[in-house]
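To whoever picks this up:

The parser on our side crashed when reading a file containing two proteins. I've narrowed it down to the boundary between the first structure block and the second sequence. Both blocks are reproduced below exactly, byte for byte. First block:
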Amino acid sequence: MISKPHFFIASFLAILFSVQSASTESRPNIVLVMVDDMGWSSIGCYGGMVETPTIDRLAKNGVRFNQFYNGARCCPTRATLMTGLHPHQVGIGHMTLPVKSAVDPKPGDATSAFALLEADRSEVPASYQGWLNTDIPTLPEMLKSAGYATYMTGKWHLASEQSETWPLQRGFDRFYGHLAGTSHFFVPANLHRGNQRIQAEGERYYITDAISKQAIEYLKVHDRTKDEVPFFLYLAYNAPHFPLQCMPEDYEKYKGRYLEGWDILRVQRLAKQKRMGIVPESTQLAPRTENIPAWDSLRAEKQVEMDAIMATYAAMIDRVDQNLGKLVSHLEASGELDNTLILFLSDNGGEAESGAFGRFNYAELGKYGSGGNKYGKGWASLSNTPFREYKHYAHQGGVQSPLIAHWPKGISSKLNSSILEQPSYLPDLVETCLDIGTASRPELKNGKSVPKGEGVSLVKTLKGSSDRIHEKAFFIEHEGNRIARDGNWKLVSYYDNSWELYDLDEDRSESNDLAERRPEIVKRMDQAYSKWAKRSGVVDWNIAKDYNVYDAIKRKASQ
């Protein structure tokens, strides 16, 4: 017979254990999927022509955010996504430093430029140092402290030469991918497993397939060894970032689909978006910029070439969706899908860094092992329909990202297939993950104070109990391109230009500048932006552009 004291102790421990177990079991897994340089309207559920049945299924059984903002470029977006802070607050006010171990020296390279560059950066402000500040906790570090297993595959692009800035040292248990900002898809030169640089293995290697397969392998091992522990998986695709390279079978699927050209297809896409409820009926199509020729003015041969380069871009996104299908199938088979929050987004808008036509070798397009290609402004304008501008810029085409959230156990079933119009941005995702993971941001790291997170958890929104996410304005800056977003108002400017003001409830494509008619709103939002920029470490781009590490390398290499 058990004595009463022992009975009560045993009962208490049993209850405590069951509560702890229930708490652990109830915490969802988190899968954060980010694609690279994909324009807002490329995928099917945002009006695009690429066949993305898996992503569309996640949207149908989840929610789409229709006014979600990224950081306009690779590094700034990643810096915020991993910390919940603005990129300037964590050392990446512009871009990262190059990583020597991730670069294959080529004849003519001035490798000494790296050492000179590092020496020259002694006077660069910490907000532009070029790597993720090690005194700032990362999302995987915070989730790991709360009991999560943490895995990453794909593109990091937050590192310096020092390995303490690499994924394993920033909170991930396992890592397979590349540290630098871009990678060859067939023969990656900067591939890493953990901290070790490795060579790609296997026939018909393709990095989109490889990082997806490795992610699933991590989860299979997790299921066998840590089934009671929730996991955080960060799957950071390099696709469809240049070099545009795809598998031949995917290329054949899309070849010929874009021969109508960017002018007609943009009109058709906007009409489809209106039918889908993606944009208001009042939305106008942003005009084709002057340096993009009318499609009908191109020779037939040029149109065929342009179709081929866009088919390559589409094929790369298609391949991402194929692999996400395998990941979702694994989660279903393991019984984890319903209690896994899946977030899907893009790091910036479509890129247009190589003129109207891009840069490509037509003879190689669609072939296994092909060289690097870019698709140019003409097609980027289609990818970003109906918006203005591209990657780098603060207008909608540069900073508006698709965001899909899928979590059957956590999202109100009443919201399935819904399109949420509340403005939100990257820091909100970090606060959401911390919220559902019952993780917290420490007050100190390495003996230094840790800033409070800049975002707002989306959990109430996902449960249908919150109409507005941000009660105050939020801000973004990259290369002098600036945003202040407050409710329906968006204040935006190009580098060294005056502010423009748009009512995005009525004017999603930023066609009607209201700055002169509403100077009081401009003044209020400008003052708020200036206060934010000062506390966040933003430096005027006329000065900060001299911190551009890539231009510095070119200058030093030529000396």
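<<boundary where parser fails>>
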Amino acid sequence: MKDFKIYISIASILLIVYLVAQYNKPNAINWQSTLAKNDKIPFGTYILHNQLEKLFPDAEIANTNKSIYNVFHNDSLQQGNYLIIAKSIKLNKFDFDEMVKYVKAGNSVFMSAFSWSGYLADSLKIESQAEYAKHNVSFNFVNSKLRAQSSYLFNRDIANQYFSSLDTAKATVLAQNYANHCTFMSYSFGKGHLYLCATPALFTNYSLLTRQGNDFVEKAFSYMPTAGHLYWDQFQNGDIPEDVSPLRVFFANPALQWAYYLSLCGISVFIFYEMKRRQRIIPVVEPLQNSTLEFVTVVGQVYYEKRDNANIAHKKVIYLLEHFRDYYRLKTNKLDNEFIDTVSKKTGVAIEFITDLVHSVIFISAQHHVTDHELIRLNKLIEKFYSQTGHNGK
């Protein structure tokens, strides 16, 4: 027991030293694209959400956290503008129909996302993808009254998304990039308008800390008419109100989070030590034998029941990057334009496809939640790559 007390004392001292070191360690910049209104990281939307009152001085600002159908169907919304900034937007037919009713009544809906799916994408015939370019992509408004003297140009490829497909008979192009690809457009329904933007990163903190970012956002929002109400959608981006439980305080602070985990580990070690000292000998029971087929079936069933799309997607990304390293002797620590060009040359696969594949890998790697559509799209891209290169995957 004396030895155990010494062990506890040493562990406590080490824990204190570790916590002090963690507390004084500078925080690394989090480049994850969350688009969340409370996130002050580069790709959060804290600045935009807090500047809405200045951008829409005559409007009452309100947040919504229900699905599009539930928000519009109960007629609780007043005349105004509805704003959605999200990583992906997927609307079914019921969502779309209720939204169109709201727009036809003389209201405006403004949406911006990296990817579009569901009935919305099918009905409006829209698809989006990343522009392949060796340099940052420039873009500008089409309207001469809004057009900037010098085209907008941002670092970190935040403006490289564009609409690769749209209904040219119904859509009005409002902005386009250097390659004349549409990045911002509108659809008319009755007395109102639906605005779609392919570059949601332009509405983030990173963009709004620049003069160009502020100028673009102000002009883009100027298409929406003056109204008494502005609604900020939290549902599509999963930006629902945060947990207010006591544990949230621990998990919000990295040092306290590690202290929590280390404390659990310490308690577990203590319990294990005490059990080992006191428990009686337990007879060994031979485990049931399991065949390889049964094992694969069980593992597959577990993944299916958990619906852990993010885990599956991240594993697919890991295996693909390992394939790049092992078979093509490529470094995968920097997935930039040079890497894309090298993969295309070594594999003989079209550079446009490799660009789409790599951008999808980058997008998935940054996500904590992956939808069925995103997982299926990633899997199709990877399988197509293996097929074109004559491999069956890892």
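After patching the parser it read the second block fine. The chain has a mean pLDDT of 85. Residues 292-389 form one domain.
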